[in-house]
Design a protein that fits this description.
alpha+beta, two-stranded antiparallel sheet, 5 strands, 21% helix, 17% strand, elongated, EC 1.6.5.11, NADH_quinone_OxRdtase_chainI, translocase
């Protein structure tokens, strides 16, 4: 009986406290400045150096390029850029090593899907990922 009264006292005391949960879909979460979310990719900046795919610890980045069709221009142009977010750990190494800053991290973290096939994101999707770009990366 004493345990029941003690538990009831604790419950009634905590009913008047301020709530610490968020109304998530309706209220935006305050994220720290250095939060690492989904990447945004700028294909026009990419020089196909493969440093991002080489440094990736989970090998989730696939990058291919081809020679520039104009013989007077040197270098490569990007052909495909895919990320498998099923195994990506959002470690930020790909953005740190990119010499042209073609890859940046955003504050977007919402990737919930019903199918695992939807976690494979391609060049077009990553280029259009403009939601929640961090302040230091806005151009």
């Amino acid at each position: 009986m004493f345990g029941l009264a003690k538990g009831l006292k604790y419950t009634l005391k905590n009913l008047t406290r301020q709530k610490v949960t968020y109304d998530y879909p309706n209220d935006a979460l305050l994220l720290p400045d250095r939060f690492r979310g989904i990447q945004k990719f700028y294909p026009e900046k990419c020089i196909v150096c493969n440093q991002c795919s080489n440094i990736c610890p989970t090998d989730c980045i696939t990058l291919t390029g081809k020679k520039h069709p104009d013989p007077s221009k040197k270098g490569k142009i990007i052909d495909t850029y895919d990320i498998n977010f099923e195994i990506c750990i959002l470690c930020d190494l790909c953005t740190e090593v990119c010499p042209t800053e073609a890859i940046i991290m955003t504050n977007n973290f919402e990737l919930a899907e019903y199918s695992r096939d939807m976690f494979y994101k391609n060049l077009e999707w990553l280029d259009e990922n403009d939601t929640n770009i961090r302040e230091e990366n806005k151009v």
